[in-house]
Structures are given as structure tokens and as C-alpha cells.
Design brief:
The protein is mainly α. 78% of the residues lie in helices and 0% in strands.
Length: 110
């Protein structure tokens, strides 16, 4: 009886540990995704009003990026970004950063 109780306790401990590891992994991915979305929001705001309009209800909301675009939605947002014409070096750098953030957001596990 003691052997069964000990084995059961060990198995339950392993099960709880596996669940904790999975929870930590998911939490880390969500934290990284949320940070990327906030950075994207700020970068588009810094770029200027022509990029900030992409975040309005008439444009593409950052929250939709976090949920994951379908292929058509992602293509439409990328087309909107491609239509932006940076006038300064700062705007070019910001646009490059936004593109990098979107590529990060599109990776599996995001």
C-alpha cells in the first residue's frame, strides 16, 4: 500500500510540474506578444498621423494583430504600411522597426 501511495504521489508531482512548465511557457509567450504589440502601437504613433490612422477603428486595430490575422488581413495591413512614404530618416527607421515587429508577431508560438 505504501508503494502505491508513493508512486501515486510521484506521478502527481510530475504532472503538476509539467503543467507549471507549460503555464510558464504560455505566460512568457503572451508577455512577449503583448510587449511587441505595445511597441508596435507606439512606433506607429511616433511615425506620424498617417501611420497612427492605421490604428483607428476604420483601420486595422493592434488588438487584431495580437489575435492573429488571416492571410488577407495581414496582406491588407502590410499594403497599408507599404503605402506609407517616409520623409525622414527617423520615419524610415520607425517603419523598419514596425516591419520587424510584425515579422516577430507572425512567428509560430507568438
Amino acid at each position: 500500500m505504501g508503494l502505491v501511495a508513493t508512486t501515486t504521489a510521484l506521478l502527481l508531482g510530475l504532472l503538476i510540474h509539467a503543467a507549471q512548465v507549460t503555464n510558464d511557457s504560455v505566460r512568457t509567450q503572451l508577455d512577449q506578444g503583448a510587449a511587441s504589440m505595445l511597441e508596435l502601437d507606439r512606433a506607429l504613433g511616433v511615425y506620424g498621423p498617417e501611420a497612427a490612422r492605421l490604428l483607428t477603428p476604420q483601420g486595422v486595430a493592434v488588438a487584431r494583430l495580437a489575435e492573429g490575422f488571416d492571410a488577407a488581413g495581414r496582406a491588407a495591413f502590410m499594403d497599408s504600411l507599404d503605402a506609407l512614404e517616409p520623409q525622414t530618416e527617423a520615419q524610415r527607421a520607425t517603419l523598419a522597426r514596425v516591419t520587424g515587429l510584425l515579422n516577430t508577431a507572425g512567428r509560430p508560438g507568438f
